[in-house]
Amino acid sequence: MLPIIYRQSRSLLFVCLGYLLVAMVTLPSASAQLGKPEGLYYKSWAVVIGVENYLLAPKIPGAIEDARAIAQAFRRLGFDEVVELYDKDASARRLQQTLSDFLPRKVGRYDRLVIYFTGHAGVTQDFDGQELGYLVPWDAQIGNISKSVTFEQLKEFSRRSASKHTLFFLNAAVRGWEVSTAQTLSLEGRVAPEDETERRAVQVLTAGDKGESLSQENGKSLFVQTLIDGLGGMADRNKNGWLMASEVGDYVKQQVLEQSKGTQHPLFVQLEGEGDTVLIEGRKAAFIMGAEPQSPSERRQAAKVHYEQAFALLQTGKSSEEALERLNNALEYDSTFGDAYVLKSYVLLEVLPNLDGALSAAKLAVQYASKNPDAQYTLGLIHEKNGKYAEAERAMQEALVVNPNYRDVYFSLGILYADEIKDQPKSVEAFTRYLELGGNHARARAAVAQSTPAKP
Asked: Which terminus of the chain is more exposed, N or C, with fewer CB under 10 A?
């Protein structure tokens, strides 16, 4: 059943919503930083590392050009800080200082961090015989593990980092993360993007497996071109407007494998946590749906999910525009969803005033939700606002046929009879029934008291 709609409850509901909105708007920015961010992240960091002209190792033509293209891609995504380290700036000492001091001091709990590396890399074995990958800084030799950045060091950094979401893009043929293949991440069951930022995630995408040659296309890195396309939105596999790291990983793996004719196998792993880094933020209403439902039962279930989310948004005083959008989505999936029409008519009557739209929705609500008294009740309130008092009375009486003990309707009828139809006996009768059912509004009590003859 709808939230109480009659005048008293409508005033109370929207006064409460008003207080909530005022409280949110008037929070000082300093105190707002103490809690969760208004969006998904407070700040977005990207560290782009490109080594082309090695001091002690072979040159990698085009590495810096590729890295700069990736840096631009992050800027297009709206990253606040893009730190670029090329050649001499990517020395062993500078990289260690960046990982051990700079980023831990700068990156906060509700920030996201993406680290891109292009350069030489390799795989060795640790003392236990396990594979250990490493990245080669500008002033190190290939195979000199003491001056390289090992995956063990990267794992230790990710464990110490405050960032909830850390994502590594490694343009190198390398492995060595002691983890199983990443589980498939689905949007199903995720209530909101804000909930997603609560789940920690450390994710890794490499250009290829160890020992593989990295393919070029038109003289440029196939991995980099595919990654830029994916970050531009082509990796949004379910077309809901949200781009997640898992989607980019799947897209790059598939595209690079196909275009390299099976010679290059990018690896994507979930190193830690169950979250998923958000790279493009779409519309919140589309986040929870995932893949487009196909069968009638799937579409009905999708409609129900959108309806429940709309109801929750209204109850918590959040975006009413988004609530209306979700209701419209629900009705696209199921055009006979009566309760969605009921709630939509209420929103267009009281929250986002549109009497024509409210009337259309209310008529469909009566058609498809005949057992829901709020369908007729809302229709009556709309007729009343439109000055059609006889139709309003008739609709409210129909609501009482469905639920004879709906006291809110009696209260609204009491006001309608008193203020518009000018029938005081009927007004008192409606107010009396309202009080008998447990109502306590002062106007109803006063009307009934005034109609009662004084005792001698």
From this structure: C
